[in-house]
Amino acid sequence: MSDKVAMPDAPAIRTHRLTRYFGRRAVVRDLDFAVPRGSVVGLLGLNGAGKTTAIRMLMGFLEPTRGTCEILGHDSRHLTPQTRCRIGHTVEGHFLYPWMRVRECERFSRQTHSSWDGAMFEQSVRRFGIDTAAKVSWLSRGQRAGVSLASTLAANPELLVLDDPALGLDPVSRRALNETIVEFSEGGDRTVLLSSHLLEDVERVADRVALMVDGRMLVDSTLDDFRSRVAAWVVNTDDDPIARHPIPGLVHCRSLGNRWLVTVADPTDLSREAIEGLGGGVQQVDVSFEDAVLAYLSRSRVDHSFFTGAAS
Amino acid sequence: MQIRVIPGSSAAIYRQIADQVRRAVVSGDINVGDAMPSVRVLAKELVVNPNTVAKAYAELIRDGVLETQPGRGAFVAKRRSVFSKAERLRRLDDALDTAISAAVTLDFSAEEILARMQSKLEQLM
Amino acid sequence: MKPLIWKEFRENVRWMPIGLLVSAAVCWMVHPRYQGNNSLLAIALVNQFAIITPLLAFALGVVQAYRDLQNAAGAYLNHRGVTASDVFLAKTISGFAIYIVSVIVPLAGLAAWVAYHGMWWFPMRPAQVIPAFVFALAAFAMHPAATLMMSRSASWWGTRLFPLAPAAAMLAVFYAYLRDGGLLWAGISFLVGLLMLAWMIAIARQSWRQLASDPPAATVNASLRRRWLLPTYMLVGSVVCLTTAVMFAIAFVEDLSRSKVYVPTPTSTLAIEEGTDKVWLVTHQQDYDSSIGNYSDKVLGGEIVTGAATELNVMANDAKNRKFRYLNYVTQLRSMYYNSDGFFTQPNASQGRSLNYAYDARGYLIGYEQYPQLRWVTTIAADGVHPAGVLAGKPFKLDALGNGYQIFMTLANFGFPHPLIDADGVYVIDQDPIAIRKIIDLPIDGVSNVEAGEGLAPRLIIRSENQLSEFQLVDETGTDDWFETQRSNSMTRTQKIPNNIKLSAELVRTVTLPDAGFTKGAFGIAWTADAIVVSKNWIDQQSSQSNDFYRLKADAPIEKVTFAIDPGTSVAPDFDKFTLTTMLVGMIPGGLDLTGFAIALAIYITDPSQPNPVVDFIRYPIMVSTFFVSFIIITALSFWLVRRAAYRRGLSRQQTRCWNWSVPFLGLAAPLSIIAIYRLVHREPCPACTAPRRVDLHECEHCGEPWQPPADQGIEIIDQAA
């Protein structure tokens, strides 16, 4: 607790040139990334972009090949049980022991955490509509997510690290999940790192977005900043406009039938000129959050300029 | 007042909230002096990040749609213009552009559109 | 900790019925009723447990470790207010509980069953399950070994084989001692086993804490200080693996090069000529004689030993067509003879046809009636015969029956009931009625039964300290003419056993041994009418420098005779030739060779009558040079492999130097250890100097350049907060 006093404004999570190889393959490369205290960060990326690997390193389950990562001011490689109790973590797929009953899950978690809020557990479990006498193996995926979230939140963590919690959830459970996250973060002093594929949910609940492509962090900014710095144009032309003119700041160019959608980050006058120069009726279009993210994510499929070997 | 948030649209969520509050004020759904729900309550209701709601409220307060009373939250303010004439015109043009292009694509004639708009205006004012 | 133990127990208790079932099946199968009367309970039980318990412990360890090493389960379990060490210890404790229950319950059941039946139809007692239990306890070492194996997410070599090898080797040692060691070795093994378990658990815990997060080579390989448990274990593991592999290779080669049929080989040895009682050096060999269907001795040549300075011709014709008696060993008595499990010896019929006797380690002979059914009918103690059902009277000090059989093999082979010997004296069992009689009351340190010329019964020679006492076994008439030697075919017991003779012993003479060398170890002994001949080097093996023998007389000074053998005529086997085995011996780590040499030297220094290893070195030039050539080739190969492995493991110059120094002592085990201890490093071309550089270091080891962050793509949107 002393570090809280010492560094009130220190980020909840900070990585410095975090790199991880599996064999010869770099899965996370030179990640410099920070999660400010009190923010809700959506971590986006395709499968295999290195999100889960980065989270496993943050939680100290995997050691970085080089570089460092800190969580709540502590080196992730040497987390003490006390620090762990201040961090809530749900794993991909909401793992629970299938042979336990929900009540036993609660007891197991209560006995292994330093603080426990039974009322919070009850409330979260009720939100997902779960019978506490049921065995975990009888629960649906959504209900399992509920138990997993409930036992994570009941430990009163300062930081919540959720690894793809919405995967495979039904709409009702998804809404309950979002509600939980919003409620958790409403005080403004608790931090959430949320890895997800559901852009709409991220847009709703996150105030920052971090976007990984092929092991690199390409976006780490507030949601609004990100939106305002990405622009898109529709170009009427038959052939690929990129082949002819290099456009500064080009994120992605996508074919829409006989037109092309050109997405550009931080458009400068230079890039505007270049796009105007493509000719054939150029028109600027609005960019939704989803469009912008998709433009970035599509890059990994096309552009392997810096990355040798396939990420998976 | 019912606010609906549609993620994934081209408008940012805070803008959707601000626009809907503005429309409600204009249409008289909520009246001058009415209390707005707190940021927390609205965030929970809409299931959006509280910072997003706070940002929408901040914009509405800046625009003079809402005003804050210390310790009591946000209320609908008396209508006063906080924009310059030119800005107001730009915003009117924006709004009309959207409405007219939609109307034209629906294959209405100019007369029909104008008549319709006239009747709507009469209802509002 | 408590909830973790509970979780592990709940999760894995389902394996307990399988363990119970397997152990119970084994306990069922070892019943003498199913194994036949040739089996003893403790041996059968340890044999079976040696197969199943390591497997059970290993399987349990793999199951327990595997599940929680998966990403999701690992994160769920470890991300709470517990340490990795807590998790590991909880696994070990609950694993042990499950394992030991599934072993103890069937064993306790078996012990109860045995206690209920008692020894009435077979020699068995509840304590016979103890060696099996101690082995099972030790075999739990496979559990931490399995955890160790699973937690090292390393290469194939490092992961699979090495962590298991030392544990398996230790279990093999436990097996060897527990199989027929009885309660004494069970007690020692129990203490040693606890130490071994503690050691294994400490190692596995270290591995679980440090290696389960797959750390990069830069942090793990750099310094082994303060975490020496695992590297030491791996070093031991690779030495064990290498040595075992070489031993198997040697066994295989030896098996291939050996003849599968009997090849007679001549031996030169001292012998006493029948009739004249002169000492000869005789070369003889055992040939198979198909006319009698047995082996017969044939003298090839030899010369009389006079003590003159001339070298003796071992193939001289003088010896042909003469009859000789050969020297016999003076042996130490053993506590328990073969065919024992440390609790009982197998019942055998050497004391007459009607009863089978087994020796009980508590010091009694248990007599069983065979027909109409097995039944305990009598107990023989050192001072009397007691009825069945009790163990009473003065116990024997050693296995009197087995020692008696071994010493009086000549009598036993000829069909006579043999006397019993323990450390206190010699006894005979009289029949009808059964009674025990002590015929010699003397503390016994060593004993021999020697031939005493044609027509005479073998004489018994007993060593007490440095005194040799010769006894004659006589019947009621005071003579030993009860002994018949005319047996053309000694392997068949067709003679009528003279059950009715009552033997007693008569002291013939007592002599004193020449020096202290004879009071430890074995020596050869022969009988002549006027003296007892003893020698420590009576067989020409090309290993002893000087050959000599002593004539000991009751009332005359000791006469020492030295002699030398003409090397040109020697028939001693020529060990000094090129063999593949010697080549293979060169693969054994030099440290072990050196240790063996040092031990041999130490033995020679403390006891100069033992062979001198330095002289042996000079005596076998071909063998020694073959060994050294092989050793040098292997060492060179090891140097090369160490350099390669050290590069692949990214070891520092100093570490590589240390390992290079270890090569002469470790041989091929050095590169194997490097592979087992250190983690692989990966390299990719350095952008600055194009040399392959390690990915886990910040600076290039060739040009010192730090890694450059990948070039911006011009589309990064990173704000100040980051």
Question: Topology, please?
Answer:
The complex is a heterotrimer of chains A (312), B (125) and C (722).
Chain A: H1 2-6, E1 13-22, E2 25-35, E3 40-45, H2 51-58, E4 66-71, E5 74-75, H3 81-85, E6 87-90, H4 102-111, H5 118-127, H6 141-153, E7 159-163, H7 171-185, E8 191-195, H8 199-205, E9 208-213, E10 216-222, H9 223-228, E11 230-236, H10 241-244, E12 250-256, E13 259-265, H11 269-276, E14 282-285, H12 289-302
Parallel strand pairs in A: 3-8, 3-9, 6-7, 7-8
Antiparallel strand pairs in A: 1-2, 1-4, 4-5, 9-10, 11-13, 11-14, 12-13
Chain B: H1 13-27, H2 39-46, H3 50-62, E1 66-69, E2 73-76, H4 85-105, H5 110-124
Helix pairs in contact in B: 1-3, 2-3
Chain C: H1 2-12, H2 16-29, H3 32-35, H4 41-69, H5 71-78, H6 84-117, H7 130-139, H8 142-151, H9 156-179, H10 182-211, H11 217-220, H12 229-257, E1 267-273, E2 279-289, E3 294-304, E4 311-312, E5 324-326, E6 328-332, E7 355-360, E8 364-369, E9 375-381, E10 384-387, H13 400-407, H14 409-413, E11 420-422, E12 425-430, E13 435-441, E14 446-450, E15 459-464, E16 467-474, E17 504-512, E18 523-527, E19 532-535, E20 547-553, E21 556-565, H15 580-585, H16 590-606, H17 613-619, H18 621-648, H19 653-666, H20 669-677, E22 683-685, E23 692-694, E24 717-718
Parallel strand pairs in C: 4-21
Antiparallel strand pairs in C: 1-2, 1-5, 2-3, 6-14, 6-18, 7-8, 8-9, 9-10, 11-12, 12-13, 14-15, 15-16, 16-17, 18-19, 19-20, 20-21, 22-23
Helix pairs in contact in C: 1-6, 2-4, 2-6, 4-6, 4-7, 4-8, 4-9, 6-7, 6-10, 7-9, 7-10, 8-9, 8-10, 9-10, 9-12, 12-20, 16-19, 18-19, 18-20, 19-20
